[in-house]
Amino acid sequence: MASIIKVGKRWRAQIRRKGYPDRTETFSTKALAEAWARGVEGDVESLRAGVMPVGKAHTMGKLIERYEEEIGGAKPFGRNKADVLKKLKEHLKDVQVAALTPGRVVAYITEDRKIKNVTAGIDLTYLKSVLKVGRALWQMPIHPSVVDDAREMLSHMGQLERGEERDRRPTQDEIDRLKGWFAEHSKSLSPDLIDFILDSGFRPPSEITGLRWDKLNKVDRTITILDRKDPKKKVGNNQVVPLLGRCMEIIAKAEKTKASGAEYIFPVNGSTWSSIFPRACADLEIVDLRLYDLRHESISRLVECNKYSIPELMLITGHKDPKQLMRYTQLRAKDLHR
């Protein structure tokens, strides 16, 4: 039987079953403690019934390591997946594979304060991939519905959210003020970078900071973006894209101050963008504007000019699905009166 007791401001769940090791976990709420206990007790019953064969003492840490080495070795993971797997390994390293329960997965999501509701679903997806491979390829004692049950539980608890679809577009006045702020306050981020985002449609900051001189084709006015975001191909998705509007002019300007041996056209750390842009908006009292909204504005302008087909727009923006492209396209009703 499970015992649930309050310890200070938290709740401790303890399970004791003859023939099985004692299990104890601490949670922020009684509901989480009870959910975890139900999951553990359910898995114990499954083990006793022979539904989940008891194998060797495999831990989640070892399983994730093997997944990284064998699956990641054959097809390298993207940075986001690698980071999530590292975090999963840190939190679940000592948990026995056969003892992983929906409650324990719920605890991982809710107890880690760094996991936001919007990104929790991504963590669950990657965890499910690990468990699926472990069960199918390596015959590990993994219950097939662990993650699905945890996802359903988290959904009921309001811990899973879909990313918001923003419709915020900067005004020309806001753009001009931002460029003025960067000209006055920032040495690393020039006003030209604002124009580059607006004219290129590239993802800021990653795709822009990753642009290399040796991938620039001045004759064709194109550049190759390395490892462009792709849901299936995380590494090696190199794409030749056009440099539209003022992009070539801005690059030519950057070339005049290019350091000897420089690899990158815009040698700015991505974290610099993430910290300086919000500060600029705060100083200028520009409300609810994010760096990525400039890309939204860029794509919307490309659509509104009626010069490009959907396939052409997808080449520029890097989207693989027209539905994804339309999500980032924020048309205004007044613009339809042409």
- One letter per element, helices H and strands E, the order comes to EEEHHHHHHHHHEEEHHHHH
CATH topology of the largest domain: hpI Integrase, Chain A
Spatial order of the strands forming the largest sheet: 1-2-3
Helix content: 40-55%
Largest sheet: 3 strands, antiparallel
User: What name goes with the CATH superfamily of the largest domain?
Assistant: Intergrase catalytic core
Query: What form results from the Cα inertia axes?
Result: elongated
- The radius of gyration over CA amounts to 25 Å
Give the total of domains.
Answer: 2
Helical stretch tally: 14
Proportion of residues in β-strands: 5-15%
Structure summary, number of beta strands: 6
**Overall mean confidence score, pLDDT:** 83
CATH architecture of the largest domain: Orthogonal Bundle
CATH top-level class of the largest domain = Mainly Alpha
List the helices and strands and how they pair.
Elements: E1 2-7, E2 10-15, E3 23-27, H1 30-49, H2 60-74, H3 79-92, H4 102-111, H5 117-136, H6 146-156, H7 172-185, H8 191-200, H9 206-209, E4 216-217, E5 222-225, E6 239-242, H10 247-256, H11 270-283, H12 291-304, H13 310-317, H14 322-327
Antiparallel strand pairs: 1-2, 2-3, 4-5, 5-6
Comma- or semicolon-separated keywords:
three-stranded antiparallel β-sheet; 14 helices; 338 residues; mainly alpha; single chain; 8% strand
Q: Gist?
A:
By secondary structure, this protein is mainly alpha-helical. The chain is built from 14 helices and six strands.
